[in-house]
Amino acid sequence: MSGKVFLIGAGPGDPELMTLRALRMLQEADVVVYDRLVSADILDRHAPGARLIPVGKAPKCHTVPQDRINDILAKEARAGLTVARLKGGDPMIFGRGSEEAAYLMAHGIAIEYAPGITAAQGASSSTGVPLTHRGLATSVQYVTGHRQADKVLDLDWKRLADPDATLVIYMGVANIGQIAMGLMTENLPGSTPVLAVGKATTPDERRLVSRLDKLAADVREADLKAPTLFIVGQVVTLYADQTVTNLLEQAHG
């Protein structure tokens, strides 16, 4: 008898931002295979008696390779169990959910999805900075600031350097200097405002207001770590508290 896999987006960290569907699936699962960024408050909502399997990855430290994660999901489902694959944010936005789904479908294993609020939306709601705003940004682009196996970051800088759009950068802390330079090379002004949000929607959330030409130095000085999201564009001018929550001013206060 074959079981099934629930591919669940846990949201950006605050348990209240989980969808009802995601919560229901988590509470129906016999086994929970979860990532490093899933908060304890969310994980604690699993069904009594459910078995927990951590498979978290950290930058340059993949303790459980993706192939092994795929095998775990398939093995547990083949044993007739309902498996919750619990991921932070939305599993279909830079979460490798589609890769896992393709593997499972190729092995005849049923999948159901629960989308999650992605980190960009979480950061927007917690800071009050919109991703689009009439007169400031008519579109929004999501991009990853990291390549698999630390490959060259060969992004389409010309397309991304759109002054009429908001650019949201995931997983970009390590490469933020290169990213800022790439955007400025394609004539995005160095004065473009940037809001960096670390651990968005959690009690440990940190914020940094900067500008593109000073961003790399400010991130280093503030010692921002992953997971940190960067919102680049004129929408950042709408941030209502640019001084009190500036990490550099806090550090020097």
From TrEMBL:
Listed EC numbers: 2.1.1.107
BP GO terms, sorted: cobalamin biosynthetic process; methylation; siroheme biosynthetic process
Top class in the EC scheme: transferase
Limits of the Tetrapyrrole methylase domain: 4-215
InterPro entries the record matches: 4pyrrol_Mease, 4pyrrol_Methylase_sf, 4pyrrole_Mease_sub1, 4pyrrole_Mease_sub2, CobA/CysG_C, Siro_Cobalamin_biosynth, Uropor_MeTrfase_CS
Pathway where this protein functions: Porphyrin-containing compound metabolism; siroheme biosynthesis; precorrin-2 from uroporphyrinogen III: step 1/1; Cofactor biosynthesis; adenosylcobalamin biosynthesis; precorrin-2 from uroporphyrinogen III: step 1/1
Pfam family, one: TP_methylase
MF GO annotations: uroporphyrin-III C-methyltransferase activity
Keywords for this protein: Cobalamin biosynthesis, Methyltransferase, Porphyrin biosynthesis, S-adenosyl-L-methionine, Transferase
PANTHER family named among the record's database cross-references: S-ADENOSYL-L-METHIONINE-DEPENDENT UROPORPHYRINOGEN III METHYLTRANSFERASE, CHLOROPLASTIC (PTHR45790:SF3), SIROHEME SYNTHASE-RELATED (PTHR45790)
Recorded family membership: Belongs to the precorrin methyltransferase family.
Full protein name: uroporphyrinogen-III C-methyltransferase
